Amino acid sequence: MNMISRMVSIAVVGGAMALSVTPATVQAGGAQMLKQCLAERAGEPDQKRVQSECRWKYYEYMASYGK
Fold first, then answer.
1. What are phi and psi of 43, to 5 degrees?
2. Please, how many CA atoms are within 13 Å of residue 46, restricted to the half-sphere of its CB?
3. pTM of the complete model
4. Nearest alpha carbon to residue 66 among 32, 22, 5
5. First vs last Cα of the chain: how many Å apart?
6. Nearest to 59 by CA among 24, 27, 36
7. Alpha-carbon distance 59 to 34, whole Å?
8. 44 and 50 in contact (C-beta within 8 Å)?
């Protein structure tokens, strides 16, 4: 739930719920996902590979939103 709230801002417009995905929320979600990936894998011996794999996850995330 917490991760969803970081990535997607919910706007109430005229009493109706509407999902508002803005470039800023996409960027913030991507940055958070990258930090989390790096933190989760901090103890692994090959940090260069970990950074590369986490960066690819970030790129795929951003590409999925067309950014």
1. -85, -5
2. 5
3. 0.62
4. 22
5. 24
6. 27
7. 10
8. yes
